[in-house]
Design brief:
Blueprint (H helix, E strand, L loop, with lengths): L1 E5 L2 E6 L2 E7 L2 E2 L13 E4 L12 E4 L2 E4 L12 E5 L3 E8 L5 E2 L11 E2 L5 E10 L2 E10 L4 E2 L2 E7 L6 E3 L4 E3 H7 L4 E3 L4 E6 L1 E8 L3 E5 L5 E7 L16 E2 L5 E10 L1
Antiparallel strand pairs: 1-2, 2-3, 3-4, 5-15, 6-7, 8-9, 9-12, 10-11, 12-13, 13-24, 14-23, 15-22, 16-17, 16-19, 18-21, 19-20, 20-24, 21-22
Pfam families: Aldose_epim
Cofactor: Ca(2+)
Keywords: Calcium
């Protein structure tokens, strides 16, 4: 377990997964074992969304890639690169064509192994400062590699009256519950406020959109995404790709408590 500390802020990271973030003694992250979801955060890469109706295949310029829901990155293990009292860096590296064991097989998938026809390196860093917690993702791959990116953190809720505010509207928790597994899209948005115990401000850089998901009233996933996958059929999921177009493709999420 990696722990980061600054004043009244405490971050807990378990093999690259954010399992705790507290400020002034209040825990903001959904705890494993609580109703709702078996994880507390993960990444969706190089695709977002389900692929079962497309025979678990996604089209790329190098041909079809075998991908299960939300991609193969989550099936890989992070390696700790460096750590200080306020910052930790983790990394995953993938070699083109390497088969990755699919944890959904055989109960939820027909594909025992997943693969991707490109090399890539995926770096995830956590850093706490006076302004809160910054989680940064850096993608390095061959020029033109297609990808989508989504970050999937789960936040602990203490009130069924919790809501989500954007510059345009307020979304009640019931609205998210009613949408179900497809998740509720919040498009063209870079900042969201979770209203529960005080306010939790979630700002993003590079993503452009969010989707909101939960099936229980004690937890809410507020997910920055580059593409909302339910606007197209699974066979056209590739229409949401963007290319690697610079040496380092950087995306950030900033979590700021306002108790």
């Amino acid at each position: 377990m990696v722990k980061l500390n600054l004043h009244d802020q405490l971050v807990k990271i378990d093999e690259g997964e954010l399992v705790g973030y507290s400020a002034e003694g209040h825990e903001y992250i959904h705890q494993k074992g609580s109703p709702g979801w078996r994880n507390s955060d993960t990444e969706m890469f190089p695709i977002i969304g389900p692929t079962n109706e497309a025979n678990f295949r996604v089209t790329t310029p190098k041909g079809g890639a075998v991908q299960d829901q939300h991609g193969l990155l989550r099936e890989m293990a992070y390696q700790l690169v460096s750590q200080t009292e306020t910052k930790a860096i983790f990394r995953k590296q993938y070699v083109s064509g390497t088969p990755i064991k699919n944890s959904k097989y055989p109960s939820k998938s027909t594909e025992e192994y997943l693969s991707w026809p490109y090399n890539f390196e995926f770096t995830k860093s956590f850093e706490i400062s006076e302004n809160g917690l910054r989680i940064q993702f850096k993608i390095t791959g061959e020029e033109g590699m297609p990808f989508m990116l989504g970050y999937h953190p789960a936040f602990k809720l203490t009130s069924e009256r919790a809501s989500i505010k954007t510059a345009e509207r307020t979304i009640a928790l019931k609205e998210v519950l009613d949408v179900g597994s497809r998740a509720l899209p919040v498009m063209d948005c870079n900042s969201i406020i979770l209203v529960d115990v005080g306010e939790l401000i979630i700002k993003t850089e590079g993503f452009g959109n969010f989707m909101l998901w939960t099936e229980v009233p004690n937890m809410l996933c507020i997910e920055p995404i580059t593409f909302y996958p339910y606007t197209v059929s699974q066979k056209k999921l590739h229409s949401g790709f963007q290319p690697v177009n610079r040496p380092e493709n950087i995306f950030s999420v900033i979590i700021q408590p306002n108790i």
